[in-house]
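Dear support,

I submitted the protein below through the web form. The confirmation email said the job was done, but the results page showed an empty box. After a refresh the structure appeared. I'm attaching both so you can tell me whether what I see now is the final result or a partial one.
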Amino acid sequence: MQPRMKILYVSAVCLLMLVSMAMGQSGRKQKKTPPQPPVQGVNQPEARVQPEPQAEPEKEEEKAPQRTLMILTSMPDISIPIYYADAARRGCLSEMRSGMKSFDLREDSNQNRSDAIKLAKDDENTYVLLMDLELDRLGTSRIGVEVRYTLFEPKTAKVLGAGMGYPVQPNNGTPMPPAGASWAQVYLDWMGRDVARQVMRRLGTIP
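What the results page shows now:
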């Protein structure tokens, strides 16, 4: 009887010890495992880089409107051939094409001063050059004709310059008028080119 009681007693004591140990461990706080460094080469969801906001495309700079130069010739005196005005105007236009590439060059014929002023006032970007062929009253012209010009400012039609073209013979490879042209046409071409150079200086396209 005594050995059996001893076994029961020892069993009860062991049971109590196990229960008390289990209760003690359940009350303890579990230590957190320190986070492991991310594996190289593998994107971690929380470590992904957010895409940077795209910058708005820069607006293109507004280009200044192209300037226009309208070259006009008036109706010449009845004693002056009409083609004289054409020769002077075309010589002027040919010279300007090499020195006024930033301008839109246009031409017209048989115009007068009122037409030129109206054209200048109607557009804030259009300069108007009016060329008048007049008889040489003083006898200084080789062909008996003078080529005078007036340059009008856009919008206001203010006179920016006026003068006369001279038959300056070119020495820099400037193309000559077509073969077979009369000396009058040659001189008128040179006069028109001289007008062109004076106007380009006033507008600052050549020194």
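Response: this is the final, complete result; the empty box was a page-load delay. The beta strands are 67-74, 103-111, 126-135, 145-152, 159-165.
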